Amino acid sequence: MNYIKLLNAAFEKFFFDERLNPTHISLYMALFQEWNSSRFSNEFYINRRDLMFASKIGSKSTYHSCILALHTWEYLHYFPSKNPYKGSKIMMTIIETTDETVSDQYSPILEQVAEQYRPRREPVMGQHHPKNGQVVYPNRPINGQALVSTINNTKQVNIIKEPKGWQAVTDFFIEKSFTADEGKKFFDHYENRNWQTSDGKEIRDWRALATNWMNRSELFNDQNKTNKKTPSQFKDNLRTTKTKDYGQPL
Q: Are 88 and 78 in contact (CB under 8 A)?
């Protein structure tokens, strides 16, 4: 599978499909990333909470409506799971472009262009030929060897999978106007899980997970406030503050 061809084909189909709205596209891109993480396997399993967080969908009804619409419009095949401990199964549809199919023979031309691309003001990274002064790229293919791009191999510095300790977690919670006890509760919860999600996947970014924890904590507190007993709306006519003299004749 070619990541670039598949993504370009999907965007081309989005452009001409008037049924789609931004929520459909956001959910599809989150599913596409999960598909890419599974190395474009024929089928893979999903976690609804992770997908809603990745696609920034806050409503369960909106999520189910969008994924069923994508299934109906044949962007994917959705097999919901009735088992709460097992995720739903997804089979992505391979979209073809107008001029070629994604199953075409691999050509390294696009990867060569990406490897040699540089901004105008950035100096060329390479070695100068000792004779004619031309730049020689150390990763250039030799004897027909395919060139593999290293663009996606760079590490993301800002993403940390696990915190250095409970102190870093509590500091982050205090920074977000939460208590240190709430941060300690979050740390103990995922420390016991070896920093894995409920379906056994490795956590990608603990700060994003902590932010989601705080949002759910605020939502839970708001629901508890609304569920508290409120005064009865029905007027009790037997209870009155007026003093009546029942000895007077009618």
A: yes
Choice between 140 and 2, residue whose per-residue pLDDT is larger:
2
d(CA 163, CA 155): 17
- Contact in structure between 196 and 204 (CB atoms under 8 Å): no
Cα(20)–Cα(11) distance, integer angstroms = 12
Q: Residue 59's pLDDT is what?
A: 93
User: Helix axis angle, 60-72 relative to 22-37, nearest 10°?
Assistant: 80
Helix/strand/coil percent split, the chain, to 5: 40, 5, 50
Distance (Å, rounded) from C-alpha 73 to C-alpha 213? 34
138 to 67, 97, 122, 128, 147: CA distances (angstroms): 45, 34, 18, 11, 11
Residue pair 177/155 in contact (Cβ under 8 Å)? The answer is no
Q: How confident is the model at residue 199 (pLDDT cuts 50, 70, 90)?
A: confident
Please report the sign of the dihedral spanned by the C-alpha atoms of residue 226, residue 54, residue 177, residue 181.
Answer: positive
